[in-house]
Amino acid sequence: MTFFEHLSELRKLIINSLYAIGAGAFIGVYLGIVLASPVVLYQLWLFVAPALYKHERKAVAGFIFPTVFLFLAGIAFGYFITLPYVLRFLVSFQGNVGPIKPMITVNEYFDLVLLILLSLGLVFELPILIFFLTLFGIVTPAFLWRNSRYAILIIAVVAAIVTPTPDATTMLVFMMPMIGLYFVGIAVSALAVRKKRKREAAEQAGATG
User: Fold this and answer.
1) Which residue from 28, 139, 149, 184 has the fewest beta carbons nearer than 10 Å?
2) Rounded distance, CA 191 to CA 106, Å?
3) Whole-angstrom Cα distance, residue 50 to residue 48?
4) CA of residue 138 relative to chain centroid, distance
5) For residue 121, what are the contacts with CB-CB under 8 A and spacing of at least 6?
6) 43, exposed or middle or buried, with CB in 10 Å at 0-12, 13-18, 19+?
7) 53 conformational bin, left if phi > 0, alpha if psi -120 to 50, beta if neither
8) Mind listing the pLDDT tens digit for each residue in 159-169?
9) Count of CB atoms within 10 A of residue 89's CB?
């Protein structure tokens, strides 16, 4: 494809993605990018796939479903579990002199929902990130297990930053899935290492044979 043909394909990708985001926003105000994320990822795949070799396309295609699934799982966890805790905490505020009537605007509510859903959607991609870091030789299962204490400390700091309320309960609600996903990432890393070694052994056997 020529440079201008690539630009034309990119323009088509952006337009289709904006249509999907607009439709999602019509269904759930401010949530368009969340609802349209599978379509956006598919459009991105259509743009990238022609530049990849066949085995590269198969490898990347194998990650589309788990990536979308984990992102949507994070959104579901945020909507059904984390968001109720946050709203309950915000609505239950009371002052020293008397009860304070909570005044939450529509924009503030949707900004809060978007922050929680997108944050947890991205956090749930942690096993995918660990898998690619393992493939590139940046981390190993032993390294991840050995430094799990420091990882939990970093997770606590991240949870404290992204948690929209100062109470410890909501922070723990953010932390627990992140810690669980970290240890799932260790298992995924071990599988990646095993698969990589098996492939290298097969290549060496083929070379010597």
Assistant:
1) 149
2) 45
3) 6
4) 20
5) 34, 37, 71, 72, 74, 75, 78
6) buried
7) beta
8) 888 777 777 88
9) 15
Q: Using one digit for the tens of pLDDT, what is the confidence trace for 45-78?
A: 666 667 666 766 666 667 777 888 888 899 889 8
Give the global pTM.
0.71
Q: What is the DSSP string of 152-198?
A: HHHHHHHHHHH-SS--HHHHHHHHHHHHHHHHHHHHHHHHHHHHHHH
Q: How many CA atoms lie within 13 A of 209 on its CB side?
A: 6
Tokens of 25: 């926003």
Using DSSP, state whether 8 is helix, strand or coil.
helix
Q: Is 164 within 8 Å of 86 (Cβ atoms)? A: yes
Question: Is 96 in contact with 12 (CB distance < 8 Å)?
Answer: no
Domain residue spans in the chain?
52-208
Residue 85 CB contacts under 8 Å (≥ 6 apart), including other chains: 169, 170, 173
Higher pLDDT, 178 or 108: 178
Rounding to the nearest 10 degrees, give the CA dihedral for residues 133, 136, 139, 141.
Answer: 90
